[in-house]
Amino acid sequence: MTSRIKFTNKFGFIAAAAGSAVGLGNVWKFPFEVGKGGGSAFLIMYILFCFVLCFPIMVTEIAIGRRAQKSAAMAFTPLGHRGWSWVGALGVFCGILILSFYNVVAGWVLGYFVEMLLGNFDIGQHFTEYVSDIATVSGYTIAFLITTSFIVLQGVTKGIEKANKIMMPGLLAIMLFLVAYALTLDDAMKGIAFYLVPDFSEININVIYRALGQSFFSLSLGLGAMMTYGSYLSRNEDIIFASALTTLTDTMVAFLAGLMIFPFVFSQGIPPEGGPGLVFMTMPGIFKSMGPTLGIMIGSLFFLLLSFAALTSTISLMELPTAFMVDKYNIKRKNAVIYSTILIFIVGIPSMLSNGYSGFFTRFITYIGADTPVSFMDFVTDIASNTLLPFGGLMVCIFSIYVWKRRKLFRELTHGNENFTKTFIARYISFTLQYIAPPVLGAIFIITVLEIFFGVNIF
To answer: What domains sit in the chain, N to C, each tagged with a CATH number?
Structure first.
């Protein structure tokens, strides 16, 4: 077993893993998925899927990474199955694509944080012009990418672990403050009732499908981030406990986001199903209504929160190609970070140009069955986030049970938890990986491909 830098302790790993999972999707997209899904009906299904389906897959990805002591693209070779390396390589490719457009959106968030500090609440009315201003957008995008690269450049313990130990508690503290403030607004309780009072009649196949997709994507599964982080985890640590706490943290952040957003939304009479784009178009107006002093404080904190959430995810995405280059080509980490940064910036240029600046990238491609062309950013999102992630998760399940074999997976999980094989959790993980996850993830992959690329509306 090769020597490898480790997280200093369990909390360091959990902070990094939770940071990878927690992102803009948790803090903003999740509440409006709840809105589209009828409120508490979606929330119930989301929490159920996080622990029933996603938790076993997270355990598996971390176990593979720790056993191999290699990053995602290299993890299958030390396990004796070099032919499966393409699965890890696909995850790294997927991570590069996701980071290429995610970093652009993170740049918007950083820019809005600055605008709130300056008291420019009218920025929401000029969102289209703002994102098509290539000089402004590229400046903030580069600044965010450099920040991400700087943290990753410091290494596992001094960079990734240390940054997440600061940002994750900071993120939670800001969220709790904003939740407390939001509950004081007029009609806040209407938002809470929509969010928390169960209406089981709203549960249907579409809500189940969307909740399953949101839970899987929000936990950063299927792209190899957890495998890579797992390779830095000590063999004395309990993977089951670490995975459970990571899943719980990710779910808690999403839950708190709902407690924060819905009071804001209902206090302004905004439809709860408005969509994630409203963060840039509507929230500045809400902060303006609070008055200049309070509006600047709350608005700045809100977009600082989103910046923290974005940064914890971009760090893990940047680590994917960085760790691959270090493991595969044995180059210095500094050079790997530089190469990754340049690559991601270049790949992200079409996404920066696809929001009104360039007609070609704005109307990039027409799918079979689609009425209008989609932008390059939407195209990359459809390919990476919506299609390749569930496919990657499916391949991990098949590999762990039928190729690597369950006994070897369980043997790895006993390190740090000697009685694991005797527990109910062991039987539950085995059953899920064999009988639940493969058909469910396979169905998600097929349905997504049919809906996005061929216009077949399953639901």
So the answer is: 10-356 (1.20.1740)
